[in-house]
Amino acid sequence: MKKLLKILGLTLCALGTAWTAHATVVTIPQSALTPSTQYYTDIIGGGIGSSVMARNDDHSTGALSLGFTLPFFGQNYTQFYINNNGNITFNGPLGSFTPSGPQGATQPIISPFFADVDTRNSASGLVYLRNDITNQIIVTWDQVGYFASHADKLDSFQLVLRGPGYAVPVGEGNIGFFWKTMQWETGDASGGSGGFGGTEAAVGFGDGLSNGEILQGSTLAGISGVVNNHHIWFDPNLRPIDNNTNTVPEPSTFILFGAGLAGFGLLRRKFKR
User: Fold this and answer.
1) pLDDT surpassing 60 at residue 267
2) CA distance 37 to 16
3) Which residues have C-beta within 8 Å of that of residue 43, sequence separation ≥ 6?
4) Which of 14, 32, 190, 199 has its CA 20 to 30 A from that of 224?
């Protein structure tokens, strides 16, 4: 059943390609990534917080308070949902497990690594939330496995999200993605085998209407190796802060953090058993 639904999802993806021709999608260059081997919480201390979901496949939390008002693609949000599959959303939970890039999600989304995370194997880690710092939340997918219940390879990645009132230190940003050891990029139901192949993971942002930003190499083979032991910060306009050159890239098409975008697209849902 799951295989048939995957085929249906890929068919819808092909149809959606033509329907989303006018969507605005910005590519984040890999050159903006900074080599590192730590979570942000390893740097500041205090740990990664508490687990927010039991072992599961495709589950999400209920609505959680941000503790601040976040402007994102022309809307203001005060709550969010943590999804097991490597992302957070704002209008509701998201059970989708195969990305077509974060801009293909049906919810406004921030995804440090949108892929088919499966934590049901006892050797897999869990998803954690730390929210003890004012105007900041930190979500960590710590040593998580992939579908179906595999834990022979594990991924460790973290999202740092800050509100407008946060005093951002020099060299940091309002949103941070941190990746430690990344050993897989695809679940079995996304066409993968042994954690690779098929439709690989995606990294970036989306407004739920097919507009967004994705890291160069998203949904392509090798994305886990691209982000492995790296991090990246973004400024309030969702532009990457390139600490390799101490500059902020200024392409004219970068999307404003609080700005709305005109665009239309096929809103797709992918179903799992």
Assistant:
1) no
2) 38
3) none
4) 14
